[in-house]
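Can anyone check this?
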Amino acid sequence: MEEVEEREGRHRPRSEARVFDLHGVRFSSLVSSASGARSIAAWRADFAPHTPGRPHSMTEEEVLHVLAGELDVEVDREHFTAQTGDAVLVPAGAVLTVGNSADEPACAWVTSLVGMKASMQPGGEELAPPWAQ
């Protein structure tokens, strides 16, 4: 087996996450190009109770894994509730809305490719989420 080069910074403590608040959701970026990742970005998304979703589409696939609570999810007009332990695969280009209508907070672990861009609906406002760059 080939020896793996040791690099500093492979461990990503939550206390060192870069934190961004947008549309009522807190995004805690743990893995991105800013932390040395070349292709995968990963972050925690925390939804306060009664946080409405904002429809958007993305240039890359995204996977959400619900860590706690329940999330109201709509992917290309298919609506469902994702519960703790569930995963959601969002194809590139699909219109996604994620919110939390419950009385309790919810959170998800999310992954996508570094460089993913989003287009907010309606209107098409372009966004390069810093947690995914």
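Reply from J.R.: I decoded it. DSSP finds no helices and twelve strands in the chain.
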